[in-house]
Amino acid sequence: xxxxxxxxxxxxxxxxxxxxxxxxxxxxxxxxxxxxxxxxxxxxxxxxxxxxxxxxxxxxxxxxxxxxxxxxxxxxxxxxxxxxxxxxxxxxxxxxxxxxxxxxxxxxxxxxxxxxxxxxxxx
Length: 123
Known about the structure:
single chain, five-stranded mixed beta sheet, globular
């Protein structure tokens, strides 16, 4: 009898990241409005590939609730990138009700700041 590795064993489990954003300015810098479902930039020195699954528990400013998001890596800022950008990953929110609620909540917090041309971590 031969033993073959379980397919699930070769599939890496998604990373779990806790992201606590304490200030509106930090939320502005991390939010990625160009993704239709929304997204968030997460500083990280870990190696990721585009399409990797990432499970994020996001806490927003002045809100004790944690928002669980099962997103995918859609953006990578490498170490020593141009313009001294922070190394990390951009997570695209999935197209689901929880993500829609989180996107709405973030955009309510940011309000008119969304139209600002201040630099962010992403663009």
